[in-house]
Design a protein that fits this description.
Blueprint (H helix, E strand, L loop, with lengths): L2 H13 L11 H14 L20 H14 L2 H15 L8 H6 L4 H9 L6 H36 L2 E2 L10 H7 L4 E2 L4 E2 L6 E2 L8 E8 L5 H15 L4 E8 L3 E3 L7 H6 L9 H11 L6 E6 L8 H14 L2 E8 L9 H9 L4 E4 L4 H9 L4 H10 L1
Parallel strand pairs: 5-6, 5-8, 8-9, 9-10
Antiparallel strand pairs: 1-4, 2-3, 6-7
Helix pairs in contact: 2-3, 6-7, 6-9, 7-9, 7-14, 11-12
Length: 386
Amino acid sequence: MNTVDERERRWRLVLGREAQCPSGLGAADQGMDGALEALYDKGASESGAGGRRRAGLGGSAPRVARWLGDIREYFPSSVVRVMQKDAMDRLGLHQLLLEPEMMEAVEPDVHLVGTLLSLNRVMPDQARESARAVVRRVVEELERRVAQRTRSLVQGAIDRSVRTHRPRRTADIDWNATIRRNLAHYLPEQGTIVPQTLVGYGRRSRGVHKDVVLAIDQSGSMAPSVVYASVFGAVLASMRTLRTSLVVFDTAVVDLTEQLTDPVEVLFGTQLGGGTHINKAVAYCQGLITRPNDSIFVLISDLCEGGVRAEMLRRVAAMRAAGVQVVVLLALSDEGAPFYDRRNAAALAEMGVPAFACTPDVFPELMAAAIQGEPLTSWVDKHQDA
């Protein structure tokens, strides 16, 4: 197929049947065109009440299952996920996901997991088992993606969080700190510093060295963040040098720490949707912190507070004053810029707690920085500029 024919073919698939393609479409392209038409082409849909047109997949679970199979045949996984999400938004397929055969046809991804979790309370038992299988596939894929790097960076940060004046190896010397410590011993004639005192990284003994408390807003808009945070929570909980707690909240607070050995159980313990009382969650998490100077509190929320705002801010300030490293993430996802309460974010920033969105790939670096006690404001500025 020459360049002109290929261009015409692509435009025909983009514009739909109303576009003219002199060279026509082959059998595979016709199948692709039909799958696109069912979702996006109003001209191919059936007439609804009052003469309005509606989408053409209809309400039949077998028909939708066939369509889901078609798009997996014709399109790459990244496109399939977009089309599945569009089908949820445009065609209202949420209820059809309660059918077990539908679970076998979908392409698992984070958005689908969020949809399934939002339907968890109304699923029949057979569909719930199929949904668990889908969720587990996504969770296992995410764990493979993040677990090794998270453990490596976080454990390295724990090992380096103690200073020593007798580093065992050259690699353990903190050269920047050593130079600062020995500036008084600068020899101008030689243009060098005599390092009379070395500053290095110590090695931690076995045991728990840091406490991490994750508080996750489970309002509907936070679904991808809930999925990623549950996976990271399980990875952190698997490290003996950390004591990890995980709390989810809306207007109520639920402690899911006991389920952290299995992130799928954590996810099915959430209930996406509803209001948001951040203050109540922060108050509960304060009660979990017994070693402020060795604790990291990670709040993942869009900061749309439905509770007592002033008290929430006072609690965060009290944590900071006690020595807790406080991290506020507006989202933990690959979604791009999230919606959030700018007034609350600004108030937190004024007290030295930056509120920012974080991608899953950067989260391990963030935790390493928090464990080492780095100023998070400068860390955020550096990574946002990168």
